[in-house]
Amino acid sequence: MSIDYSEKIPNNVDLAGDRKLQRALESWQPNFLNWWKTMGPAVPTEDVYLRTAVAVGREGWAHFDHVAMEEYRWGVFLAERNADRRIAFGEQKGEPVWQQVPGEYRADLQRLIVIQGDTEPASVEQQRRLGETAPSLYDLRNLFQVNVEEGRHLWAMVYLLHAFFGRNGRDEAEALLQRNSGDLDSPRILGAFNEETPDWLSFFMFTYFTDRDGKYQLGTLKESAFDPLSRTCEFMLKEESHHMFVGTTGVDRVVTRAAELTREFDSEDIAPHGGIPLDVIQKYINFHYSVSLDLFGSEQSTNAANYFTAGLKGRWQEERRKDDHVLTENAAHIDLIRDGVLTQDEVPALLALNSDLRTEYIADCENGLKRWNRVLENAGLDRRLYLPHLGFNRGVGLFSDHHVTPKGDIVGPDVWEAHKDRWLPTEADKTHVRSLMKPVYEPGKIASWIAPPTKGINDKPFEYEYVHFS
Ligand SMILES: [Fe+2]
Ligand SMILES: [Fe+2]
Question: Which domain holds residue 353?
Answer without folding.
Answer: 15-469
